[in-house]
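Before relying on records like the one below, remember that each one covers exactly one chain. Contacts with other chains, cofactors or solvent are not represented anywhere in the record.
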Amino acid sequence: MRHPCIAGMLAIVLLAPGVQAQGPVPPADLGWKGLTQVISRQWGGGNWSKQDWDATEIDVAAMAKAGIRWTRLEFPVNEREYGGLDRAVTLLSKYQIHVLLLIEGRGVDPADARERARYKEWLTTLIRRYQGRIAYYEIGNEPYVEGAKPGRGTCTFTPPGYAEGAGRYLSWLDDSYTAIKAVDPAITVLFAGLSEWTSECYLDQVTAQRGYRWCDAIAFHPYGKTPQECLARLHDSLRKRMANWPAPYDHLPIWITEIGFHTERGWHNNAGLVPDEKTKAAYLVEMMRLLQADGIKTPIFWYTAHESHPNTHGYGLVMRSP
């Protein structure tokens, strides 16, 4: 059994199911509410073979009832056990929930031709397996290179090797984009969700190396203490730099694939700490409205449905009980 938090109750608004998703800006009738779901960790301890599928379906049914029509799932690079993902995709389809699949990992060594070839073969197999069922892929999650020192909207310092570190991800993105489009040009490829933390320095490298060429949309995670601060980070870090990209890349759609606030006092280093669930609920509603008013026309993914451990408020819309 799970006990709803105030945030979960305030977020419930019914939306009609839509048609199959396609294009970097999905049709509005598909709905815009999404959840970043670490399903295998929330109900399986990170192991699909131990997944509690009854509990998982309770979660998915509650999502559908609340009008949440999108979920962001993780799948590791070069993973070849598809059983858990097969079952998750089938279950989500049953409730008319669309999948954004995050290809998780550090990618491949751009200097290793054999490793790159093996990865592209693996990715091609994955895309073909889920063709017609998954139309959206995000390549990596929150890539960064250690040592950067951003200022407010600027990058003040990058260590030696920083450009090469960013280039490693961009090479992986290039390989992924090329392999995916060779199978199905209609699939949407998202640049890895960038955390607002140190993102100025990273995006400067994306600009310098023209990394925007290998995606159909940019994913971003504008965490902050308040909704207004989150929106400011979106502008100071991402929009400011995209304005200097050449057309048509300056108008790439922006997907918010993580956003959230939490109430766990012990998580001092986690962004988005608020005093109580009532504040979290109010910020959730305000954040969604601000993002849409700012021109975000793509699904917005709250992090997350609930934490992996029972009776932890965290970022979740609900609390998980054992």
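The radius of gyration is 19 Å.
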